[in-house]
Amino acid sequence: xxxxxxxxxxxxxxxxxxxxxxxxxxxxxxxxxxxxxxxxxxxxxxxxxxxxxxxxxxxxxxxxxxxxxxxxxxxxxxxxxxxxxxxxxxxxxxxxxxxxxxxxxxxxxxxxxxxxxxxxxxxxxxxxxxxxxxxxxxxxxxxxxxxxxxxxxxxxxxxxxxxxxxxxxxxxxxxxxxxxxxxxxxxxxxxxxxxxxxxxxxx
Length: 203
Description:
203 residues; mainly beta; 2 domains; five-stranded antiparallel sheet; 16 strands; globular
């Protein structure tokens, strides 16, 4: 089992599948290695498709599929998951699983029933929002279109590009909202008024 654990620690090339509505795309690590599961059987490199409506994953992709570097749309991301009878593990690497380096991490908890969070946009900051525990709804608005994502799995996250208004609703009891951000806290980066956001976004 020690050899398997060693291989697990070095296996960083798993593909991450993204899909928004009927537009599908795949983001791959630049370093493509083999993932090894906890019982030691090899798992070939593949792209696990994940739809916003959480439809079952489709078949593995035939080969590497590259994404345009300038693509910055809100989307649901499936993060790597290592299953184990003793407890599962998910990891995130900035610049690999995400289109940005992680500069700040914060989390929301003990949110009273019926309360909403968010209600702002960022001029430059990008983020990944994860329901580390429980569930809640994420509503994103780019000034022209609103999209809703329901998060209830700890290995799923919503990518939020810059200049996207976000609102979080319907927190379940005991839920924890984990946010990975591309920048440190900068008050000047916030847009807290929706009309100002619409003007700046051109919506």
